[in-house]
Amino acid sequence: MMKNNFENVDYTLPVAMESEVVRAQFYKKTYATLAAGVLAFIVLEAIMLNTPFIVEGMFTIIGMGKFSWLIVLGAFMGITWYAQRLADNSVDKKVQYAGLFLYVLAEAFIFVPILYIAMSMTNDLTLISQAGIMTLALFGGLTGVVFSSNANFSFMRSILSIGFFLALGTIICGMIFGFNLGLWFSLAMVALASGSILYSTWQIKNEYAANQHVPAALSLFASLMLLFWYILRIVMSRNN
Q1: Which of 144, 191, 199, 235 to pair with 16, CA 20 to 30 A apart?
Q2: In whole angstroms, what is the distance from residue 81 CA to residue 73 CA?
Q3: Looking at the DSSP assignment, which residues form a beta bridge with residue 14?
Q4: DSSP state, residue 10
Q5: What is the C-alpha R_g of the chain?
Q6: What is the Cα–Cα distance from 64 to 66, expressed in whole angstroms?
Q7: Do the Cβ atoms of 116 and 128 come closer than 8 Å?
Q8: pLDDT digit string, tens, across residues 34-88
């Protein structure tokens, strides 16, 4: 019965228009791929944080001046844009997974400084664990809101686009002019990341096709990492 269901799948249609079996399989693959991405991130981060030349190299770049981190940020954005294109535009699953891994690898590198500082503040993983638990709890709650209701979050696309451009502009100005973005900015970014999770989850439920679980997982992973970054910043600010 299941085999017949999948033989009749039309991969040009949103998964919401497919059978219940196909939808369930798509959701399972998407969240399993997301979990694999998070696990790969943890493994890569553990390796990098225990590799002195990577840690020292990242802090050396940061210490070179206010424009050095802009270069790192620009490189990160370029790599993640390319990774998303690989996942979104290819029909080859190997290429899609390569895009996802490239994105995870880029996130692992960019997280090295903040995680190292968080560990140094308490000499253990306390702050990281707290932020991780809070992130997963909020992510689970937002996911539940989408799947337990028929709310339409498509209106959030334009809001998120404007919000991300404003946030990027604020971050760049902060780097150039040397002002601290502060707690309120972190709270605003948590709200923006939460909105992104709502919208990405709504897309998974309503717009992605049944064979697009990799790009769907990458979209969620990107939002989850953004949420984790700013929740960690908030947790760290409370322990200064």
Answers
A1: 191
A2: 12
A3: 209
A4: -
A5: 19
A6: 7
A7: no
A8: 999 999 999 999 999 999 999 999 888 877 766 777 788 888 889 999 999 998 8
Secondary structure (3-state) at 92:
coil
For 183-207, b/e burial (b = at least 16 CB within 10 A) is eebbebbbebbbbbbbbbbbbbbee
Q: Is 10 left (phi over 0), alpha (psi -120 to 50) or beta?
A: beta
Pull the structure tokens for residue 141. Answer: 């709650």
For residue 236, give both structure tokens. 């760290």
Q: How far apart are CA 196 and CA 203, in angstroms?
A: 10
**pTM value?**
0.90
Q: Which amino acid is at 103?
A: Y
